[in-house]
Design a protein that fits this description.
alpha+beta; Butyryl-Coa Dehydrogenase, subunit A, domain 1; Butyryl-CoA Dehydrogenase, subunit A, domain 2; 3 domains; 11 helices; about 15% strand
Amino acid sequence: MTALAPAPPALDLTPARLEGLTAALGQHAERHDRDASFPWEGLRAVHAAGLLTSTASGGPGLSGTDAVRAFQALGQGDPSVALVASQTVFLHAAQAADPVWPEGLYAEVLARSAQRPVLLNSARAEPELGAPARGGLPATTVRRTAAGWVLDGRKAYVTGSEGLDVHLVWAVSDEPEPTIGHVVVPGDHPGVEVVRTWDHLGLRASSTHDVVYRGVEVPADHFRGVPVGSVPNNTGPRPGPGGALHLAVPALYLGVARAAQAFLTRFAHERVPTALGRPIATTERIQTVAGEIEAQLVQAEELLLGLAARIEAGDEEAVARAGVAKLLVGRAAIGAVHAAVAALGNPGLTRGHPLERHWRDVQCIRPHPPQDDAALLAAGRRALAR
């Protein structure tokens, strides 16, 4: 009898486990932010909680509301870890919904995932093209050979690049009638080179570097292209349980804002100016700021949780509102952290305090698709078409 492959860790999203994950990631977040090193400790903790493989084929599944809860907790601990983890969760969900990977390679990924974090991400943006969601064909090409395909090109902003086990590289074939799709490339393949270009304001440990692919040879079943123009460029939410997973990205930035709020609370109780003779938490000014921050974050949390439930139920209107929801959550998270920094003055901008890091990290919600102008344009067109 053939022995069964060991199963990945069981999913545990109990409140106590999520609180423990926030604390575990937070222990190393400052150091990784300082030196932009890869946050393996945090990713091992996420793996041990069963989150990385929760959406894999045969996995326990992850509801949209649980994704919002989980990634808010991860973002509160270390948003770089949260972002890297989210890409693996998304790609497992995509494979479960529409299997396109070579069966043997995906089985190997699941087997390795029983022992350690196995990280996945798609490589789509390019230095010249920018984000594919804005339209246009990639300069990255895949050329057919007698043995399979050869991939050449350069991708930008590949989150988790230094730790990826598998890259899904968005490329176009050089055939007379070109096709487009993802090339499945093991991260240790010859010709794959990570170029350390990421020197960013925030999420400094996310390893969002460029990756160069030079003459990377893959078997024929590692690329299944479709005619150019037959697939949308965006990867936004869709109806059903899987579509709501994409709300995990704004949720992780909401977690950053919660971390800023936690620091403000602690600092306000500990800070006792000699002229005042009591903690600043007892003053109406700080109490009002704290109230404004709580109002912003409650609004954003309820928006994400409610929208996730509606998307899971197949509500097409909720799907259409996901872009605006990301914009509104971003405004709330950025506004809440800004209010905390403004209330504390110099201590809020001092690198010895985490609030300065939270302020930098929360700004990084803006580049995620849909960017604000695209979300507003789509919402405006829908409103005017009614």
